[in-house]
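User: Show me a protein chain along with its predicted structure.
Assistant: Here is one chain, sequence first, then structure tokens.
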Amino acid sequence: MRSIRPSFTVRRGRGASRRTSPALAAVALASALALTATACNGDDNADGKPAASATAAGSSDGKFKIPDDLRQRLKEHGIDIDKWKNGAWKNWNQKDWLREANDFINPIIKGLWDPDRMRHANDPDKGVDDNDISGDQGVTDPTPAVVQAKAVQPPYHTSAATSGKLFFDSPEGTMVCSATVVEDPAHPGKSNLIWTAGHCVHAGKKGGWYRNLAFVPSYNNAAKSADDLQHATRSEIAPYGVWWADAAKTSQQWIDQGGETGGNGASYDYAVIHVTPEQGHAGKSLEETVGGALPVNFDAPAVPKVQSITASGYPAAPPYDGQLLYQCQDKPGRLSIDASAPTMYRIGCTMTGGSSGGGWVETGSDGKPALVSNTSIGPVTSGWLAGPRLGTVAKAVYLSVSKKFAGQ
């Protein structure tokens, strides 16, 4: 989550400065250029280079051939795919990064996310000082009492099968967030969609799309300690595989207003990602692989009517180390950081950075759990978390990703 000041003068935060119409025009469309490259010996690190020759599942001769139109689109971004696979993605020239903002470019680099790289990924948060936010607008309830996060009982595949970690690269280095497997209306029972925070896929108004996004469901499924993970194999850390993003979308409000710190864009801080298995399709979707997916409720009750929300995530900032899954359960209050933006949910919780993007689940009137929000912001000192309420803009983001792959 992005950190903000705990005392409650909140800056117009992470919300749009204007009202928006509930239309697809409010959605940031990001078409992935899905390619596959093979890493040397399957043991790539931050400085490693993939093999010069690459293979792609489904090609008749086992060789990886890039369609001419796709290669041309890459060239329009100044990207030579061979150089990209060999480490050119590490070039974060600000001008180039911003020029690429209209396309989410995420070629699969097999083996890039090895156990060491996963373990040492940092949370993307930037703490702010006590004077960074100001202005209490709209309806805000008193700061909630602190709720101590509880470790989820392993194996995670049994107790929290839809939860996992989202890894990506930013100009600051390797980063990590949390994410949740959600249903896909275009593919009932066979979803390849995950839900996370907007700031876990895009840097907001001063940056572009992050790179090398990959999801690991049930990360560290057995809940091994950091010491025990020092020599863990990739299959132990990622028992249900590594799934690369081949499309990602967030709200236009987040892209226009979002920032590294404070509350800017927080009311629209969500994203939907479509993923594909690193090793190529073997017939099973992500939902089938993990054994479930959560429905998303875009018409959740008003905050006072919600009795309980459970937030899940892999907190990475101290006192946590990012290796274990935690949850907080609390009755939400209201947090308003911009009178023109939707009021957010807020709960007491000690989870820290790294839990960003983790799903917030409520049991509906039908007795079934549904995702109603995700972790977006919290104070530097921890103690509470806030997440956006999901309405028409969020639904447009969600449906646009689903429709993109409806015929596939």
